[in-house]
Amino acid sequence: MEQDIPYEQRRNAALPFGYWCIADPDRYPHLIDEHGRRWPSLREYIWCSRLGMARGSNFEFNAMTEFLLAVLAAIDRRVVYIEEQVNDLFAGAWDLARNYSSWLEGHQLSEGLTGDLTPEGRAILVALASTRGGDAAPIPIGLPTVAPWRGLDGGETLEERERVFKISEAFAIGLPGRFVRERISRRAGIKLIGAPEGANIPLGRVLWTMTFPDEHARDRLFAWLIHRIDRWEAWAKIASDDGAQAFTEHILRIRFSDETIDLG
Question: What's the Cα-to-Cα distance from 49 to each of 33, 43, 72, rounded to whole Å?
Fold first, then answer.
């Protein structure tokens, strides 16, 4: 079979993957592969045909192909240990990193996450890097372009959330206790800041923190907190007097206090 012949013996490995496709400007989809199938883009040809993956929504497709580009670029640029790759690209999820590593190696794109790219893997890297969208193109390839796509909504409500949150955050600056959104150990997080203390330079003490897997998950809780901004002072007193765990238990109880019990 053709796939049993090394890529560099079948193709010109110095050119981007898909260089053999033909463009037809008069019909859509415009890109025609060697079997006469039409594709809306080179990325879809790589992702759906070569790799056999489902396209998903526009947001999912862009996120998945950009993440593949980030992983291939990281492998190609430097030799790193597996633990760095896992923590940098997969947020510490060893099982996901191992699965992705096996997927890349199974498709003969690389020797896992810490080995070299194959000639075909490098050709796909060049093709993906050459077909980035206008929003991503000015940004260096890698994690900064992946991070905005993490979360369930793909950033579709991000602009409106930020507008509402900033109004509430500005108002909360004068409160004796306030919640703020901040990065905590490189993860999306929320902090509860107590009333400023100290004679010369009053500083607010961090009373409670919580981290989240992505910004969307963080903003769901933050929106819930904003709707109860009248309770922030009392909640800050609970965290200050009884500790962070006591406050966590308190909001967990009230979060589910009005939930019905469904035994069906």
Answer: 10, 10, 18
